[in-house]
Specification:
Blueprint: H1 3-10, E1 15-21, H2 26-32, E2 41-45, H3 50-57, H4 67-85, E3 91-99, E4 111-117, E5 122-128, H5 134-160
Parallel strand pairs: 1-2, 1-3
Antiparallel strand pairs: 3-4, 4-5
Helix pairs in contact: 1-5, 2-5
Length: about 160
């Protein structure tokens, strides 16, 4: 992980609620290792099983790895952040859903979708995940997610200033 980017997120003044389903969840553990992480992360959830995702989303979907689900997860995370810190301006919802290497039969490529929600703007991104070991896919996605969150934060701040 990039300590400069982690420090930038922590010192941003934003308070994030994070929901990550499956791959990319090491983003949470990596940022929480950084001193002062509680200045950025107010809540983190990893609904990993289908049942946990059903409960989180309050709905069943034929597929959980798509931009629609990532967007809905980000909205839930944003609402959670607002509820916890009582401010829309500094709340941030971060979500990522992915389909990484597995031992079961799955349709589609190894991929992920991220969604970042600020008070007035939402960013969405598709990640094509390289065909490497599951452990390396996890590391790759966690780093890509960190970079993406930082880019969104910089773009959002530039757009409101």
């Amino acid at each position: 992980m990039n300590k400069l980017i982690e420090r930038n997120l922590i010192e941003s003044g934003y308070k994030a609620s994070v929901i990550i389903s499956g791959g990319g969840s090491s983003f949470i553990s990596n940022i929480l290792k950084f001193p002062g992480a509680s200045e950025f992360v107010v809540d983190a959830q990893i609904p990993y099983s289908k049942e946990a995702l059903f409960e989180c989303l309050k709905n069943k979907y034929p597929s959980f790895c798509n931009s629609y689900v990532a967007t809905e997860m980000a909205r839930i995370a944003y609402d959670r952040s607002v509820s916890l810190i009582k401010s829309k301006k500094k709340s941030l919802g971060i979500a990522c859903t992915s389909a990484l290497k597995t031992n079961r039969k799955r349709q589609g490529s190894d991929r992920a979708y991220a969604s970042i929600l600020f008070e007035k703007t939402q960013y969405n991104r598709f990640f094509s995940i390289p065909l490497i070991s599951r452990e390396n896919q996890e590391l790759y996605l966690a780093q890509e997610l960190l970079n993406y969150i930082n880019d969104c934060l910089e773009n959002y701040n530039a757009s409101i200033n």
